[in-house]
Structure formats: structure tokens, C-alpha cells
Automatic annotation (TrEMBL):
GO biological process: one example: peptide transport
Phylogenetic placement of the source organism: Bacteria, Pseudomonadati, Pseudomonadota, Gammaproteobacteria, Alteromonadales
InterPro entries cross-referenced by the UniProt entry: AAA+_ATPase, ABC_transp_ATP-bind, ABC_transporter-like_ATP-bd, ABC_transporter-like_CS, Oligopep_ABC_C, P-loop_NTPase
PROSITE patterns for this protein: ABC_TRANSPORTER_1 (PS00211), ABC_TRANSPORTER_2 (PS50893)
Protein name: ABC oligopeptide/dipeptide transporter ATP-binding protein
Source organism of this protein record: Psychromonas ingrahamii (strain DSM 17664 / CCUG 51855 / 37)
Start and end residues of each ABC transporter domain: 12-263
Keywords tagged on the record: ATP-binding, Nucleotide-binding, Transport
Entries under SMART domains matching the protein: AAA
GO molecular function: ATP binding; ATP hydrolysis activity
CDD domains in the cross-refs: ABC_NikE_OppD_transporters
Pfam families for this protein: ABC_tran, oligo_HPY
Amino acid sequence: MMDTLKSPEVILSVKNMVKDFPTGQSNSKKKMMRAVNEVSFDLCKGEALAIVGESGSGKSTGARILSRIYDKTAGEIMFKGQPLDEYVKEHGSLDYARQVQMIFQDPFGSLNPVHSIFHHIARPLLIHKRANKENLEKVVYGLLELVGLQPAVETAEKYPHELSGGQRQRVAIARALAVDPEVILADEPISMLDVSVRLGILNLMSDLKDKHGISFMYITHDIATARYFAEKTAVMYVGHMVEWGSSDNVTQTPQHPYTQLLLSAVPEAGKSGRRELDAKKGEIPLWKPDSKGCPFAMRCPRVLDKCSDSFPAITQIADDHFIRCFNI
Ligand SMILES: Nc1ncnc2c1ncn2[C@@H]1O[C@H](COP(=O)(O)OP(=O)(O)OP(=O)(O)O)[C@@H](O)[C@H]1O
């Protein structure tokens, strides 16, 4: 008899998310730009979804909507099976903020230079009632140890400027963990760190995912680290998801010309040279609510006439592999 495969628990589900920003003083439709367009994905328990794309592709805007820093313009966000607005009404914004934590690119900017590391970790523990005066020290030291900051007592006494970039990012992760989150939205968490410590942070996040069941949305420019860290990858171009699915499918058999372009820039071990893709040096378009077509058309080496008329529908090309491109 076959085992019944349990489907993974979806924690965050996003459907057709849109975000427009005013480009000037006016809020009229003509003066808006569309930073995120028709973005849909599911984030499952204990899984990492990498959102990959160049600067300005809408990655951070998406994460900021999920952390409720920005409102969405349109679309649906479900958290644990309930529309996000309803969830927040029922459980409160503090509860959602506890469960969906964000860590940022600049670990120095996100820590307060006047406070000790102990204070940074103790504060969320007390606000969210995860510790009390009796067990506070033990919990703080335990979290510092969990993120590999040892000796914990010594580290707790330090101030942010006394730590390296990698150590500061570990403090930011410990602070996020202090409130026992379900989801961590990690916005370029390693891009400002020395190359030598990047892998350590990715491995720490992998451990938190695998051993503690935390789900990660991992925002990055670097498709190679997406492949290393995340089970799922979504490639974005100018606010649009153009290819997504399991990271293996997306990175080993990329079908969209933009994904192929990103991968052609990644040097591969054991292979001489790089795969060539003749991407035209087109302008990156400013997308507006009434813009039409595929945003990559101007740079696409395989552009067709119809690419400037409409954005292609979703095509499933394999189990857990999807693309929006006419040219497949
Ligand atoms: N608060 C804002 N007001 C107006 N426009 C914004 C705002 N935030 C982002 N944008 C615009 O939205 C688009 C997407 O920006 P976003 O920061 O989400 O991209 P990104 O892919 O995260 O880029 P990066 O990797 O550089 O952080 C950009 O054109 C940006 O200028």
C-alpha cells in the first residue's frame, strides 16, 4: 500500500498581489508606477522561498507588504488560512508581528548603537512576554548560543560596534528568534557581509528552517545562493514573477530568458567559461498600471511581436515548474 503523502502546511499565501506607488505628488492613476504586479506564491512551513531579481524588481516591496509596513494595492494575502486583515483583527497586529519577523540587509543599521546586545534580545522577549525577570538572562544567553555567538555572556555585554558584520547579523537573527516566529522575511541578509562569512549565515538560516520549522522568504540578487539555501525559487523582473518552482527546476533547467541570463552570470565549478546569452542591453522599463506586454521584451533575445501586447499567461512546464513566457 502506498503511503499517503501529507501536503505541506501553507503559512502565507499570496494571490495576485499588486502594489502601486505615486511617482510624484499626485495619486491619480496616470502618475503611479507599478512596483509589484500579479505576484502569487505559497510559503510553506519549514520551507525557504527565494525571491530573486535585480535591483528594482519589487522584491523588498513584496516583503514590506507581508510585514504590513506597506498596504497592498490589490490581491489577497492569507495567513494560516485566514485573510490577513481578518487575522490581524482577530489576533491583533502584535501577534502577527511576532509571527512574521523581518531581517534586513544592513545589520548595523538595524541595531541601536546605544544599546548592548543583551538589551536588543531582552526587549522583544519582554514585550512579547516570552521571558520574565527570573529567566530573562538564561533565555537571552540561550538565543545567543543558538545563533553561534559564544561565549554568550561576553557577547551580551558588547555593543553593536564591537561586533563584526556577520556577528551583527547573527544578533539580528537572534532578536527575530526571540519571539518564536513562524516566518522570517530575510531581505538580502548576506549581501553586505564579507564573502567569508556569508555561508555561515546561510547555514544558520538552514538550521533554523530544518530543525525549528521556520519558513523563510529569502530575498536576493544572487541566484546561486537561492539554489544553495531555498527549496523554492521565484524569479522576478520589474515587479513580475517570470519563472518559479522548485529551486532545482528553476536553476537546472531554466526556461525563461531572464532566468537564463541570471544564471549565465554565475560561474560554475568544474566548467570552463560561462554560458552565453545574448541579452540586449535594453532599458529597464518603468512599469505603470496601464503598461502592457512582457516587461522583459525590450531586453529579450527571443522577443516576438506579441510580447509587447500582453503578459503571457502561466504555463506549467513540469511538476513544480512554472513560467510566463510566449517563447517556450
Ligand atoms: N516607498 C516607495 N515610494 C515610491 N516608489 C517606491 C517605494 N518603494 C519602492 N519603490 C519603487 O518600487 C520599485 C521596486 O522597488 P523594491 O525596493 O521593491 O525593489 P528591489 O527588487 O527590492 O530592489 P533592491 O534589490 O534594490 O532593494 C522600484 O522602482 C522602487 O523605486
